[in-house]
């Protein structure tokens, strides 16, 4: 039996690219995330990462409120944190798509002649490579202006700040804080962090907050403290060993811990 050969038919379709963002990410009990909140060009492959991060940011907040251990104010920070990210991604993908497809003669020359020669040279620089990687991977996103990000009266002299994603430096730090819940990171000599110093901040919250005494294996120099949120971002960062800062922060965002 021989197979019959016939003419090939190519199926083609056209689609329109949209660049739109929701005016609000929340209306009452309804929240928007992913493509429902922002749609844009697929340039740069940013859509899936952005949608997943939307869901991650919102999910833990709703879960804590549902359990009755966080105030209704917590989900309100979702829009404050994610709407600027959605706007930034839409702007980035729109510019990238324009540069890649524009018929403008200057852009075409830059795209076809200049960029192929300069890009390999620029990517030799570690700082440029790192910044590009953090942008495309969206690992450089921060929530420093969020209502849920608080810097102590004495911020550390270096290291991640409140609202930043917790880095994996020293290596293995993210694995230590991968368990569900909040994580209190304590940097500096262990004698600076006796249990009695932390008792007021942890009272009623033992099941919600894990404590990690990092010693010198810390992202901050000297004595410092940081609270890692369930999504891996730092909610509170301060220098020194005063427990009043994290206690005040937890009293606001986990107030039912004292009930």
Order of strands, main sheet, comes to 5-9-8-6-7
Tell me which oligomeric state these chains represent: single chain
Number of strands: 9
Instruction: Round the Cα radius of gyration to an integer and report it.
Output: 23 Å
Instruction: Outline the low-pLDDT stretches.
Output: none
| Percent range of helical residues | 25-40%
The dominant shape is globular
Summarize model confidence as the mean pLDDT: 89
Percent of residues in beta strands: 5-15%
Note the run of SSEs as H and E: EEEEHHHHEHEHEEEH
* C-alpha end-to-end distance: 80 Å
The helix tally amounts to 7
Structural class: alpha/beta
- Major sheet description: 5 strands, mixed
Could you give a short description of this structure?
With 259 residues, the protein is α/β, with parallel strands linked by helices.
Describe this structure in words.
With 259 residues, the protein is an alpha/beta fold. It has helices spanning 47-67, 77-101, 105-122, 126-137, 173-176, 195-202, 244-253, and strands at 20-21, 26-27, 30-31, 38-39, 150-151, 182-187, 209-215, 224-228, 234-239. A five-stranded mixed β-sheet has the order 5-9-8-6-7, covered by helices on one side. The chain has a two-stranded antiparallel ribbon with strand order 1-4. It has a two-stranded antiparallel sheet with strand order 2-3. The longest helix has 25 residues, at 77-101. It starts with 19 loop residues before the first strand and ends in a 6-residue tail after the last helix.
What structural keywords apply?
259 residues, two-stranded antiparallel sheet, globular, alpha/beta, 5-stranded mixed β-sheet, 7 helices
């Amino acid at each position: 039996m021989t197979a019959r050969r016939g003419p090939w038919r190519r199926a083609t379709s056209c689609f329109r690219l949209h660049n739109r963002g929701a005016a609000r990410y929340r209306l009452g009990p309804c929240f928007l995330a992913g493509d429902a909140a922002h749609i844009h060009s697929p340039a740069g492959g940013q859509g899936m990462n952005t949608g997943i991060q939307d869901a991650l940011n919102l999910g833990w907040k709703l879960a804590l409120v549902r359990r009755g251990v966080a105030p209704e104010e917590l989900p309100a920070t979702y829009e404050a944190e994610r709407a600027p990210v959605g706007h930034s991604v839409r702007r980035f993908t729109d510019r990238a798509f324009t540069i890649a497809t524009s018929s403008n003669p200057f852009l075409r020359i830059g795209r076809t002649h200049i960029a192929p020669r300069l890009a390999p040279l620029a990517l030799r620089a570690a700082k440029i490579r790192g910044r590009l990687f953090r942008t495309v991977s969206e690992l450089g996103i921060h929530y420093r202006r969020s209502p849920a990000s608080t810097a102590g009266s004495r911020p550390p002299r270096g290291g991640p700040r409140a609202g930043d994603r917790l880095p994996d430096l020293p290596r293995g730090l993210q694995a230590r804080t991968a368990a569900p819940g909040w994580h209190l990171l304590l940097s500096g000599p262990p004698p600076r962090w006796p249990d009695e110093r932390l008792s007021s901040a942890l009272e009623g919250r033992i099941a919600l907050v894990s404590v990690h005494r990092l010693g010198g294996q810390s992202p901050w120099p000297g004595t410092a403290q940081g609270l890692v949120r369930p999504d891996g971002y730092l909610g509170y960062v301060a220098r020194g060993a005063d427990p009043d800062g994290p206690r005040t922060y937890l009293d606001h965002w986990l107030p039912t811990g004292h009930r």
